Each structure stands twice: as C-alpha cells, then as structure tokens.
C-alpha cells in the first residue's frame, strides 16, 4: 500500500512554494477573454488547436498587469513555465519563456503543481508505459533508466501498471484526435516539470517540508497571542551591537573568507556538486596526509579554525609534542569529549579528567589560575556536562594567545605549508560531465565513518606520543573511557633500579616519597617475573591487549575494590601514598605487569605498607589504583592497601564528610 | 468508434471464480482510466455540467465495481482451502485491485479540490486548455454503454454543487474505509507478489497519426530553418543545371 495523501497530517507543505497559490490566481486572471492574454490557434498538419499564446503576449500582459519592466516580466513568465502552469509547445524540454512568437498553452488544473498532492511514482510508471505502448523505444535514456528502476521497485504492481497504461491509452483513443494530442502534450509537460531530465534545474526543488501551511490564516487564539508575546519579549531582550561594529565584523569576515567560499570562488580542483567529480572531497578528507594549500591557509585565520579541522589539530598536536606542552590540547580535547559524550560515562570521565589534568600531582598537570580551579573543583562535586567549561576556556585562551602564535612560526607548520598541494582546476567537456554523472556513487556509510573515527581515536589514545609527567593506571588507556591520555615513550632515563618517570621534577613532593619506595616496589616487581622489558612497544601491546582482552575488567576491578573498601570501612589509617612504583605501565627499565599476573604479588604490599610512615587520610573511593592491583583480587581483611598513592579529590572529601562511608 | 466491451463480466456465465475476479479487476482498471481522462478536463474550457455528471456516474460505477471486487477477492483469499497457484494469482489481483483503488482515491481527492475551486454555479474562470470536444465517449466507455447519454440540464445551482461536493466527500471517505478494511482483513505481503506480465507493454496499435502530430510539434521550430535551407539548395541546383545547359548549348552551337 502506498502512503496515502489524506493521512499526511500536512507534512507536505512546502515553505518556498507558498507562491503557487498566488501564481494560480494570476493564471486565472490571464484567462479572462477581455483582459487576459490574447490566444490564437495552433496550426498542425491536419487540425487546428485553439488557445495557443505567444511568449511575447505573455510578457506584455505580465508587464502591464504588474507594472514592471520587460526583463522582470520575462523572469516571472519563466517562473510560471518552470512551475508548470504554462507549457511550451515547441522545445518542450526547456522550461523557459521566450519573448518571441514561440507558442505556449495553459496547463489543465488537474496537472497543476498543487501543494498537497505528491507526485506519485506509480503515475510516472504508467506514463512511461503508455509512451512505450505508443511507440516502442520512444523513451529517452534517462527515462529508460527510471523505467527499469521503477520496474524493480514496484514489481508487485507491475501488471496493474501495464494494464492501467493500456486502458488509459484506449480511453484516450475515444477522444477526438486534437484532444488526444493536447492531452498528450499536457501530460508530457507535467512530467518534464516533475521528473526533469538530467542536467536541468527543477523549479520544484524546495527543501524541507513543513508541518504548517504558510498560506493558511492562523486563528487568533489565546495561545497564538501568548506565542507572539513571548517572541516579542525575546526580541527586546536580545543584546544589541552597534551597526558599525557588526558591519565591520561582517566586512572582515567576508574579506578573509572570500576565496574559500565555493559559491564565490571556484573550488579547486572542481566543485563536486557541479561536475560530479569527487577529487575535492578525497583531497580534503579529515585525516588526509597532505592537506591542500587552501586548507592550510584557513588554519592561519583563527585558532578556532585550526582546532576544528582534524588535520590542523593533528598538526598542532605534533607541534605541541615537540614543545612538550601537549597537556593543554589533551585537556581541551578531553573537555570536548565530556561535553559531547554519552551521559552514562560522564561522571567517570569528569573524575578521570580531574585526576589526569587538574589535581595536585596529576600526571598531566595543566596550569590554570586559582579562581578557575576553585570554580572547577566546586563544580566537580556535582559533575555535569559543562562542569569543566571555565577551565577549558582558560586553557583555550592560553593556547590561543601563546602556542598558536608560536605554532604559526614553527618549523612544523612551515613544513606542512611547504608540502601542501594546490590542485589544478579541472576542465570537463560535456561528454565527460555526462560520464561523471553516470559514475556517481554514494559516499561511505556513516556507520563506517564512525568506526574509522573510533579506530582513529583508539589508536591515538594507545599510541599517541604525548608528554606525561607521571604514569599510573589512569594514564594507561582505559578502554571504556576515551580520555585522551597516552603513554609516555620509552625514555629510559631512569636508572634500572628506579622506576621514576621522566619529568618527575615537575611533580609535587609526594613523588619523593615514591622515589624512596622504589626499591621496595622493585622488589615486588622482581618477584613477579613478568615480562622482561617494558619498552614502548610492549606497553602498547600490553595496553592494547588489556583493552582487547579485558575491557570490562578495569571497571569491574574498580567496583570490586570499592566494595571491598567499603566493607573494610574507612579505617585505613596507614594508607600510603606512593605513586610511581605501583604503576605497572612502567617506563624505563621496569617490568610490565599484565593484569592477569596479579595474585602472585599478594603478600608484598602489606610489607610495604608498614614501611612507610606517612599517614594520609584518604577517602576510599578516590584512588589511583595500580594496574597490577592484586590488592583488589585480594580478599584478605588486611586493610593496608600498601603503597598506593591517592590523589585526593576534594569534592569527595566533602561528600564523605557529609556522611558517606 | 466501437467500444470493446469484452472485459465486462456482468453476466456471470464465466465458470471460474478466478476469471471472474480478473474480469472484475480489469473492468475496474478500465473505469479508473476513464475517470482519469475525465478528471483531466475539470477546470478546463470544456468543464460543464455534463462533465460533472459523467464524473459522478463513472465514480458510482467504479465504486460498485470496487465493492463487488473486494467482496469476491476477500472471500477467495480468506478461503483456506485455496490452492497455492490460485492463491498467488488471487494475490496478484488483490495488489492490482488495491493499487487501482488508491489511484481512484487520489483522483477523487484531486477532483474534490478542483471542483471547489472551479465552481460552475459561480461562473469562475475556466482555464483555456485547448480541449475542444466533449468527454462523453470516454464516459460511455467507462459505463460500458453502447449509446451516448443525452445532455442533461445545462445549469447548476450552487446548492446542487454543494450537494455534489458533500456526496463526493462521502464517497472519498468510503473509499478510504474500503482501503483500510482491505488491509486489515487480508494480509497480502507485497514483497512476495511477483509480476507475471512483461516489463514493456506491447503496442496496442501503431497510432501513427497522433504521433505524427506530436512530432511535428517538435519540429515546427526547426521547420523554417530546414525549409529555407532546402530552398537555397534547390536554387543552387537550379542555377547549376541552368549553367550546364547553357554551356552545353554554347558547345553545341559552337
């Protein structure tokens, strides 16, 4: 069953087609025998057919009626022909008004482009079948193709279509010959308007349908007035800018972007919408190796442009990596991810970001001022999507004022600029254009694009070279949270006995405790007999394998540990802070502890716990758990968690004091 | 022009119920085709009360046919003892019938809006479409009547028009309901129905005359140029022949 018109609930109101009703009135005015357009008879071989009008008469009538000049009248006449109210008798495929003696005729109201009757494919199939009945092989190529398509789609009705075509043909033969000719012309004109031949512009392209008929008079109910009141109030409340300022901004924008606008300037190599050649799109893919010159030029316009373009962002990331200040961009990206990400992981993400970037002693600590930090921390007590907005803006401004300028002068950018390609404009002949049109294929499905994006993100997270001050479990890629953390490259700066990390100087003091603890941790690690060397690739492999094999594991482990902690209660008097040694993702000469090897090192943490004298009151939920957190598998009632550095999340202390735990 | 009435099966002598169903559907298709031709004249210069009457009568015929068709096909499809091949055929007929009814519904809705706009009683301006003759033959074909109906009363009052309109509205609603009922009562899976007929309809007859008229339409624009070209060529040929004759004469004389 085809979708029926009556049930449409008005979904077919075409906003730009509100002119149709007005054109209908004009056409009816033209019919007046006294004041309308002069009609003549068309002489064909055997018969004459009345009611033919010449183009010049139409133009003259319109110019007279609306008091406009000839060119405008001609444009209006062309519009009427393009909509299908008047059809040309000669050269029926070109829907334009020629202001000479070429003949036109009015279309019968049955074939008028009405707003509420969609053009049915069934009718089109019947029409094409009828034309085929009249003379075999009379269909043009595009009509032939459409006929074949319709045969495929509407195969179940095809017998009906053929029968109906025959019957309509036979019924037509009952009429007089000139009437038959006129009817054929009318039908043909109707279908030229609604199924335009390829390469022509159709006047019926109108954009989205609307729920409301713009021509209908709206009843003045209290609801209507309420809406009007709200609308005008909002208009008044809008902030206003001096026109000199706004015009200045517009002028600046247009001068900057003039050459990049595909409407105002030719697209290089060619505009795919015009020539059906997709080179432009392939050259400008989001993560293409070598960008085009125009694209690189756009990056210089503003920092926002650079960040919005994925290739630009990648370039900027590379530059920051060379400068060892990649944490700003990573933080910004993490905040974007929080803002646009799924709601269920939002709280975790916010905490993750805090621990990675904002907390004291965080591995990738970013530099924001005290006030913003205050606001952020307060907000994180009740995290929502925009809780990190203030910090993000601060970092954005920092990058914009500082790094962006340096980036534009940097060798990275200059290199990219040099390598950028400037494609030659393509010139296609008519036949080539037709071939291109035939070779049109749909682009990649959005599902595939999304998969590629995810892969890209995972790759970045797993192997992106990023500066990292300290390593711990949360800086290893957590599979279910795409926080932009990464693992440090294998910089074996530390001596084999030490598991200190690079940039440790940047870390706050608790790390010194960690340094003291390294012998113990080394001991512990040695006891495990894990894989021999943890270099960068193995880290990547391990983390990747972690990701692949045990994606739910970290989460469950955290949950397990949380529950265990809660069971033990908050009597963790000697919970100690020691960050680096417990990180299984080690750099330097440490050993990688794959997650599976935990149970072995069980007894040792307890020993280490007694080793330290630092007592820190740390709430249970907030920890950075070491990856080899055998503690969590451990069901022992031993409260000493041993050697775990806690990054204190202040908001959680607040909640704890409010009575949790 | 002779009317071919061989598709109408109102005598019930056809034994096979399948043939009967096919005949019913065929006649419905014929009536709907005629209705479309009639509807295309509404609002044009030949729109008059007889056209409206023809429309109404064709509509009624279509509805009676539709009703009997529906009953017949519904009964057959709900019959569980139907053979597989016959069921397939009946399903094909069912699909044809529902599409036909949808076309009729669409045409009726269009006529309804047009009639509101182009009211005969109020003498609204009709569009000069170039149609000259009447459509009585088409209506006669639809109603399967060998003779043409006489012209009815010439004028229509607005009250009569109002009545007709409300009647039309009711009929549209009825067809609507019929379609709904059809979908509810019988479950025919559209994707399991396959067309048996050919993709291209065979030419019924080579109607060269109207074809010629139409093609002349298109060539009229180029006609002048061609004519002038031919004229020039002929002139040249004439001049060439004349020159040859002259030279032959000269040679001959000399």
TrEMBL record, chain A:
Span of domain DEP = 33-108
User: What residue spans carry the Acidic residues bias annotation?
Assistant: 628-637
Keyword annotations from UniProtKB, A to Z: Membrane, Sensory transduction, Signal transduction inhibitor, Vision
A GO CC term assigned to this protein in UniProt: cytoplasm
Q: Which GO terms describe its molecular function?
A: GTPase activator activity
Where in the cell does this protein reside? Membrane
What processes in GO biological process is this protein linked to?
A: G protein-coupled receptor signaling pathway; intracellular signal transduction; negative regulation of signal transduction; regulation of G protein-coupled receptor signaling pathway; visual perception
Which parts of the sequence are annotated with region: Disordered? Answer: 520-557, 626-645
Q: Which domain of life is it from?
A: Eukaryota
Extract the InterPro entries matched here: DEP_dom, G-protein_gamma-like_dom, GGL_sf, RGS, RGS6/7/9/11, RGS6/7/9/11_DHEX_sf, RGS9_RGS, RGS_DHEX
Which part of the chain is the RGS domain? 302-417
Q: Indicate how the chain sits in the lipid bilayer.
A: Peripheral membrane protein
What PANTHER family does the database record attribute to this sequence? Answer: LP21163P, REGULATOR OF G-PROTEIN SIGNALING 9
- Protein name (Swiss-Prot/TrEMBL): Regulator of G-protein signaling 9
From which source organism is this entry? Cyprinus carpio
UniProtKB/TrEMBL annotation, chain B:
Residue ranges annotated as transmembrane are 231-253
Keyword annotations for this protein, in alphabetical order, are: Membrane, Signal transduction inhibitor, Transmembrane, Transmembrane helix
Q: Does the keyword Membrane apply?
A: yes
For this chain's UniProt record, which GO biological process terms are given?
A: negative regulation of signal transduction
Q: Which family does it belong to?
A: Belongs to the RGS7BP/RGS9BP family.
- Any idea what this protein is called? Regulator of G protein signaling 9 binding protein
* Protein's organism: Cyprinus carpio carpio
């Amino acid at each position: 069953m085809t979708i029926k018109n009556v049930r449409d609930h008005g979904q077919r109101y075409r906003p730009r087609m509100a002119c149709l009703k007005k054109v209908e009135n004009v056409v009816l005015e033209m019919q007046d025998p006294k004041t309308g357009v002069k009609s003549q008879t068309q002489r064909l071989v055997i018969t004459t057919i009345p009611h033919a009008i010449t183009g010049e008469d139409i133009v003259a009538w319109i110019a007279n009626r609306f008091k406009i000049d000839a060119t405008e009248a001609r444009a209006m006449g062309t519009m009427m022909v393009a909509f299908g109210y008047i059809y040309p008798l000669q050269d029926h495929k070109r829907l334009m008004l020629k202001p000479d003696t070429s003949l036109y005729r009015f279309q019968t109201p049955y074939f008028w482009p009405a707003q509420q009757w969609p053009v049915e494919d069934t009718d089109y199939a019947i029409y094409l079948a009828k034309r085929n009945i009249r003379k075999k092989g009379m269909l043009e190529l595009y009509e032939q193709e459409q006929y074949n398509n319709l045969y495929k789609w509407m195969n179940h009705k095809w017998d009906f279509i053929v029968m109906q075509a025959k019957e309509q043909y036979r019924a037509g033969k009952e009429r007089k010959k000139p009437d038959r000719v006129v009817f054929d012309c009318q039908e043909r004109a109707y279908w030229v308007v609604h199924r335009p031949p390829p390469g022509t512009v159709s006047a019926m392209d109108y954009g989205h349908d609307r729920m409301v008929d713009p021509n209908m008079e709206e009843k003045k109910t209290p609801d209507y007035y309420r809406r009007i009141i709200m609308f005008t109030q909002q208009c008044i409340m809008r902030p206003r800018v001096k026109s000199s300022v706004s015009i200045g901004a517009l002028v600046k924008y247009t001068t900057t972007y003039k050459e990049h606008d595909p409407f105002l300037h030719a697209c290089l190599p060619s505009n795919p919408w015009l020539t059906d050649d997709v080179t432009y799109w392939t050259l400008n893919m989001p993560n293409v190796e070598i960008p085009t010159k125009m694209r690189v030029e756009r990056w210089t316009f503003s920092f926002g442009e650079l960040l919005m373009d994925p290739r630009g962002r990648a370039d900027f990331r590379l530059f920051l990596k060379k400068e060892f200040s990649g944490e700003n961009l990573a933080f910004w990206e993490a905040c974007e991810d929080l803002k646009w990400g799924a709601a269920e992981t939002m709280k975790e993400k916010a905490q993750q970001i805090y621990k990675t970037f904002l907390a004291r002693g965080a591995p990738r600590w970013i530099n924001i001022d005290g006030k913003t930090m205050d606001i952020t921390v307060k907000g994180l007590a009740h995290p929502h999507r925009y809780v990190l907005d203030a910090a993000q803006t601060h970092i954005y401004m920092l990058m914009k004022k500082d790094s962006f300028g340096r980036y534009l002068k940097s060798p990275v950018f200059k290199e990219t600029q040099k390598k950028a390609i400037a494609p030659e404009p393509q010139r296609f002949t008519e036949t080539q254009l037709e071939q291109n049109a035939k070779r049109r294929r749909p682009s990649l499905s959005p599902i595939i694009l999304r998969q590629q994006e995810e892969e890209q993100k995972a790759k970045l997270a797993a192997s992106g070279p990023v500066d990292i001050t300290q390593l711990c479990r949360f800086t290893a890629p957590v599979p279910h949270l795409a926080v932009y953390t990464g693992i440090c490259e294998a910089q074996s700066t530390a001596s084999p006995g030490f598991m200190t990390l690079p940039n440790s100087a940047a870390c706050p003091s608790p790390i010194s405790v960690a340094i003291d603890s390294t012998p113990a941790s080394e001991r512990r690690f040695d006891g495990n007999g894990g894989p021999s060397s943890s270099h960068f690739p193995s880290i990547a492999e391990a983390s990747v394998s972690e990701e692949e094999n045990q994606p739910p594991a970290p989460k469950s482990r955290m949950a397990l540990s949380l529950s265990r902690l809660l069971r033990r209660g908050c009597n963790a008097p000697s919970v100690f802070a020691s960050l680096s040694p417990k990180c299984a993702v080690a750099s330097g000469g440490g050993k990688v502890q794959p997650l599976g090897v935990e149970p072995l090192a069980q007894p040792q943490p307890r020993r280490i716990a007694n080793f330290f004298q630092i007592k820190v009151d740390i709430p249970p939920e907030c920890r950075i758990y070491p990856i080899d957190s055998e503690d969590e598998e451990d069901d022992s009632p031993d409260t000493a968690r041993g050697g775990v550095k806690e990054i204190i999340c202040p908001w959680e202390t607040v909640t704890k004091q409010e009575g949790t735990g | 022009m002779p009317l071919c009435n061989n598709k109408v099966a109102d005598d019930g002598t056809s034994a096979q119920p399948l043939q009967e169903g096919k005949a019913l559907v065929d006649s419905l298709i014929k009536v709907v085709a005629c209705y479309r031709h009639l509807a295309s004249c509404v609002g044009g210069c030949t729109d008059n009360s007889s056209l409206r009457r023809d429309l109404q009568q064709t509509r009624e015929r279509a509805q009676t046919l539709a009703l009997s068709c529906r009953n017949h096909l519904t009964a057959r499809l709900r019959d569980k003892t139907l053979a597989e091949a016959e069921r397939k055929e009946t399903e094909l007929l069912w699909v044809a019938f529902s599409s036909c009814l949808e076309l009729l519904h669409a045409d009726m809705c269009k006529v309804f809006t047009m009639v509101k706009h182009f009211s005969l009683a109020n003498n609204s301006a009709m569009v000069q479409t170039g149609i000259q003759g009447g459509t009585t033959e088409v209506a006669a074909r639809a109603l399967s009547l060998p003779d043409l109906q006489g012209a009815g009363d010439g004028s229509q009052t607005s009250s009569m028009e109002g009545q007709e309109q409300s009647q039309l509205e009711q009929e549209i609603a009825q067809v609507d309901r019929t379609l709904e009922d059809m979908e509810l009562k019988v479950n025919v899976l559209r994707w399991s129905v396959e067309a048996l007929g050919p993709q291209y309809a065979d030419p019924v007859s080579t109607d060269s005359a109207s074809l010629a008229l139409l093609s002349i339409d298109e060539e009229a624009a180029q006609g002048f140029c061609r004519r002038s070209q031919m004229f020039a060529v002929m002139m040249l040929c004439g001049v060439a022949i004349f020159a040859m004759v002259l030279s032959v004469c000269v040679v001959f004389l000399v």
